[in-house]
């Protein structure tokens, strides 16, 4: 199955841009599931396509779609290689800050918790707004 992963993932990623919220939601759920099933291969080979796609969907006007994209990011980073995490921390932090601190507090903790446990000196703790959490 791993040999088909490139073809499957590229096909799935196209649906992140679909206009129907149900399609985007299902796509994010599929990516989250694949992040578990194909870890760490998925994280090592496809981070440059998956993370930007999920960050884009986190801007969706549908709250359920935003939440599922955030869940997929959380799942993706549960077993990530260190080099991948450090590459995206600034972008993820900026995205979470854009949500507003009150609304995003739980999501912030769910994403940065595993990162902090693996990398106590990570860039996320240097955010000028981290003290507001």
Automatic annotation (TrEMBL):
InterPro entries registered for this protein in UniProt: ARM-like, ARM-type_fold
Top-level division of the source organism's lineage: Eukaryota
SUPFAM superfamilies: ARM repeat
Name used for this protein in its record: Uncharacterized protein
Organism phylogeny: Eukaryota, Metazoa, Ecdysozoa, Arthropoda, Crustacea
